[in-house]
Design goal:
Largest sheet: 7 strands, mixed
CATH topology: Spore Coat Polysaccharide Biosynthesis Protein SpsA, Chain A
Distance between the termini: 41 Å
Order of helices and strands: EHEHEHEEHEEEEEHHEHEH
Structural class: alpha/beta
Strand order of the largest sheet: 3-2-1-4-10-6-11
CATH class: Alpha Beta
Low-confidence stretches: none
Shape: globular
Helix content: 25-40%
Number of domains: 1
Strand content: 15-25%
CATH architecture: Alpha-Beta Complex
Radius of gyration: 19 Å
Number of strands: 12
Length: 264
């Protein structure tokens, strides 16, 4: 906690609520397995997994039950007009908006009394250092740090002078209110509770999704820099390539496709 006089270890650890939007696809179970293993190593953590679906899936339920991570399984279906077509580039429409908002709504409704808690929006394909969670744990308002391999750069992140965020290292539309990646900030739950209208805007312009939540919660001057004044990269915006299923399709045509009863 930095300036808390070193008494952090005598207080109960604030809970970190990790909100993860997810959707059914070939790599989903692999992605969630890897993330579950990371989260299982973090104390005082509650995983809020929100499926983009009309109803919760058995695959995700079984994965959560076997994970050893304290969890809540939610769902919110994205309407088709907001969904990417297979041929669309990934940046065309932001994903996971309704799912993150569903997670925020659940926290306001069921965890408002958990005043010291922190909320982090963790996509299922990023890579997270365990140190990151301890950096965010004592967030009072909104804490920030750099994110590796994002925005066409080695890293994006806040520029800190004398403990304050003065600008942002980013190449793309630097004039944005908060040019911060989704993985680059955490919010105190009490701040979300005291601003009941704060949410991600489904109609936000490209790159403005994070700002659409943060502008109603804080200002750049109030941001709390973490990760050694934003000089350490503790999270990476890794991407998993889509598996090619050419052989699967060929075998299926011959009636020899993979056994559908075996979960992948």
């Amino acid at each position: 906690g930095g300036d808390d006089g070193g008494d952090d270890d005598e207080r109960p650890l604030p809970t970190i609520y990790v909100v993860t939007p997810t959707y059914a696809r070939l790599v989903q179970k692999a992605e969630l397995t890897r993330l579950a293993h990371t989260l299982a190593l973090v104390p005082a953590l509650h995983w809020v997994l929100v499926e983009d679906a009309e109803e919760p899936s058995a695959l995700v339920r079984r994965l959560l039950e076997g994970s050893g991570v304290e969890h809540t399984q939610l769902h919110a279906a994205t309407p088709s007009r907001m969904k990417l077509a297979d041929s669309d580039p990934r940046w065309l429409k932001p994903r996971g908006i309704l799912q993150r908002n569903r997670g925020i709504g659940w926290l306001r409704e069921h965890r408002a009394a958990d005043t010291g808690a922190v909320v982090y929006f963790a996509d299922d394909d990023n890579t997270y250092s365990l140190e990151l969670f301890e950096e965010m744990r004592w967030t009072r308002g909104v804490s920030v740090w750099p994110v590796g391999l994002v925005g066409g750069l080695r890293f994006e992140g806040p520029v800190v002078v004398e403990g304050r965020v003065v600008s942002f290292h980013t190449a793309w539309r630097p004039e944005r209110a908060f040019p911060i990646d989704m993985a680059g900030f955490a919010v105190s739950l009490s701040l979300l509770v005291s601003h009941p209208q704060a949410a991600f805007d489904p109609d936000a312009a490209r790159g403005d999704l994070e700002s659409s939540l943060l502008v109603s919660l804080t200002s750049a001057e109030q941001l709390e820099p973490r990760a050694r004044n934003c000089t350490e990269v503790l999270v990476w915006h890794t991407r998993t390539e889509r598996p090619k299923m050419k052989q699967e399709e060929l075998l299926a045509k011959q009636g020899k496709g993979s056994n559908p009863a075996i979960e992948v």
